[in-house]
UniProtKB/TrEMBL annotation:
Pfam families referenced in this protein's UniProt entry, alphabetically: FAD_binding_5
Record-annotated FAD-binding PCMH-type domain positions: 1-170
GO molecular function, one term: oxidoreductase activity
Lineage: Bacteria, Pseudomonadati, Pseudomonadota, Alphaproteobacteria, Hyphomicrobiales
Name of the protein described by the UniProt record: Carbon monoxide dehydrogenase
InterPro entries on file: CO_DH_flav_C, CO_DH_flav_C_dom_sf, Diverse_Substr_Oxidored, FAD-bd_PCMH, FAD-bd_PCMH-like_sf, FAD-bd_PCMH_sub1, FAD-bd_PCMH_sub2, Mopterin_DH_FAD-bd
Domain of life the protein comes from: Bacteria
SUPFAM superfamilies: CO dehydrogenase flavoprotein C-terminal domain-like, FAD-binding/transporter-associated domain-like
Length: 268
């Protein structure tokens, strides 16, 4: 690691002030991406602002027909929260699939979506559930928040403070994990409420998380796994690496989508 100044404020205002004091300062949430990056000397922030002591960034509550989860809520807390399990069981189940126990006990919701790794799970839930990302400055719909591979609409010094998930409808998440890392090689979150269908895909696309419009249209006409027969994302748009080709990931997306639809259809 390179040398840096370490801050652990207890108030949000103090955390924001520490971040604003230097253009090279970085916020530290769960550290599941940032700490390995620092160890490999791939980043050299002047300051690390540890957000783990900021109480205002924690908590899971119900408010105005929405589930509000603080940015510093750890994956294990989302997975086991009675409130999440009761009101958004698909989100709790998704959180329980993230990484391994060590990752789930350290990683946070806010850190995950702010990093916007193309293989992260939460972005799919945010898109499919039409979540609102709350920052210290504004509120953004998930569709406007995720802007590309490892990119979000966050401005310098701006941090995620909470995520607001509207209640209603029903959803489920199906994921094919990398056997080693448990990152999603393809993860599909399907949600339906009334006549509206949302299908969000993570882990597969070169552009990061996305809504699969073709699948949504097919399912709006007939909500069944058979409605997706023959549908796949474009292989050329998918990630191709040592773990799988673009065609392989496109096929995984199709399979995970059919599984998610089958599970929702069976629950009716």
């Amino acid at each position: 690691m390179f040398a840096f100044a370490y801050h652990r404020p207890s108030e949000l205002a103090d955390a924001l002030a520490a971040l604003a004091a230097s253009e090279e300062a970085k916020p530290l949430a769960g550290g599941q991406t940032l700490i390995p990056t620092l160890k490999q000397r791939l980043a050299s922030p002047s300051d690390l602002v540890d957000l783990s002591g900021v109480t205002a960034l924690k908590g899971i509550t119900l408010h105005d027909d929405a589930l509000v989860i603080g940015a510093m809520a750890r994956h294990v807390e989302v997975a086991t929260s009675p409130v999440v399990v009761a009101h958004l069981p698909a989100l709790a189940a998704l959180a329980g699939l993230i990484g391994d126990p060590a990752v789930r006990n350290r990683g946070t919701l806010g850190g995950s979506i702010a990093n916007n790794d193309p293989s992260a799970d939460y972005p799919a839930a945010c898109l499919a559930l039409a979540a609102t990302i709350v920052t210290d400055r504004r509120e953004l719909l998930a569709a406007a928040f995720f802007t590309g591979l490892f990119e979000t609409a966050l401005q310098p010094g701006e941090i995620v403070t909470a995520v607001r998930f509207p209640l209603g409808g029903e959803g489920t998440y199906e994921k094919y994990p990398n056997p080693a890392s448990r990152y999603a090689m393809a993860g599909v979150f399907v949600w339906r409420g009334g006549d509206e269908i949302r299908v969000a895909v993570t882990g597969a696309s070169q552009g990061g998380v996305f809504r699969w419009a073709e699948a949504e249209a097919a399912l709006a006409a007939e909500f069944s796994p058979a409605a997706l027969d023959g549908l796949k994302p474009e292989a050329d748009d998918m990630i191709a690496d040592i773990h799988g080709s673009g065609a392989y990931r496109a096929q995984l997306v199709a399979v995970m989508a059919r599984r998610a639809v089958a599970r929702l259809a069976a629950a009716r």
